[in-house]
Design a protein that fits this description.
Layout lengths: L3 E6 L5 E6 L7 E5 L10 H7 L4 E5 L18 H15 L5 E6 L1 H10 L8 E7 L4 H8 L4 H9 L1 H6 L4 H8 L1 H10 L8 H20 L10 E6 L7 H5 L8 E6 L5 H4 L1 H16 L4
Parallel strand pairs: 3-4, 3-5, 5-6, 6-7, 7-8
Antiparallel strand pairs: 1-2, 2-4
Length: 283
């Protein structure tokens, strides 16, 4: 069944498209997509979880049907946190929510989960292929073989910081051919705006966070899911976080970066398992 659609407005006036898969009496699960996706990516996962959760997805600013701010500063993590807060205030003002996030959705969700102001609003966090940028800043300072390997995997981040050329490459279709080979999956449902606007996420946050990382901690139960064939994010970067998140469980699985698209059944099962352990369901 297709979700109902509404909008909510963030603190700076940005309108966000919100998709509600029903089951309003169930625990709320907020799904946050990454780059260059939009909330439609979560459809197959939401369908599998809709009997157990009140599933909510939203288009991150710049993507899908949400507003597309023109300034790079509008995509800073603190602005994304205001968006998240606007969504949960609208759909679950009185109960903590479970969070499922992928790629840049996970990067921003780590920012939310490690903010003491939101500690009592988040019941659990399932993170797929996305680290905290602050944690990554400390990880890369180790100057270890694992850190060097991650830098090699992160080549595209330096590319996204180039002026004007990455936008041109997306608009002309050149970049699609390169990234399609890396994704090895159907990337349907994306617009040029999803590709172009989302690069501002990198430009607004990556360099400053890696150079001057903050010590961000959380006691929220976290499931860190690392596909072993991810061409962009290595397993150590995602899973060596017990210093910051002592209540973390690690799952290294077979598969690639776009696991929510390619294997929604596995994603749904991981969420069920994690939230049952957190909430004591089925015990």
């Amino acid at each position: 069944m297709p979700p109902s659609t509404s909008t909510t407005t963030s603190a700076d006036g940005t309108r966000l498209a919100v998709y509600d898969y029903g089951n309003a009496e169930a625990p709320v699960l907020i799904c946050i997509h990454g780059y260059p996706d939009n909330a439609a990516m979560w459809g197959p996962v939401a369908d599998l979880l809709a009997e157990e959760f009140h599933v909510i997805a939203y288009d991150v600013r710049g993507a899908g049907e949400s507003d597309q701010p023109s300034s790079t500063s509008a995509y800073a993590l603190d602005r994304l946190q205001q968006d998240f807060r606007a969504v949960i205030d609208a759909v679950s003002p009185d109960r903590p929510v479970h969070v499922l996030a992928h790629d840049w959705g996970s990067i921003q969700a780590w920012h939310f989960v490690t903010d003491p102001a939101l500690t009592d609003r988040i019941a659990s966090f399932t993170s797929i292929s996305g680290p905290s940028l602050d944690h990554a800043g400390y990880f890369l300072r180790q100057r270890s073989q694992a850190a060097l390997r991650q830098l090699l995997h992160s080549w595209y981040i330096f590319y996204f910081h180039l002026p004007w050329f990455p936008e041109l490459a997306w608009r002309r279709g050149w970049a699609h051919r390169v990234f399609d080979r890396l994704e090895k999956q159907d990337a349907g449902g994306r617009s040029i705006g999803d590709y172009v606007n989302g690069m501002k996420l990198y430009r607004a946050n990556v360099v400053s966070r890696l150079i001057r990382p903050s010590e961000r901690r959380t006691d929220v139960p976290v499931l860190a899911v690392s596909p072993e064939d991810d061409p962009f994010v290595t397993t150590p970067l995602q899973t060596e976080v017990t210093r910051w998140a002592p209540n973390v469980t690690v799952e290294v699985i077979r598969g690639g970066h776009w696991m929510p698209r390619k294997n929604p059944g596995l994603v749904a099962e991981l969420v069920r398992k994690h939230t049952r352990e957190v909430a004591g369901w089925g015990t």
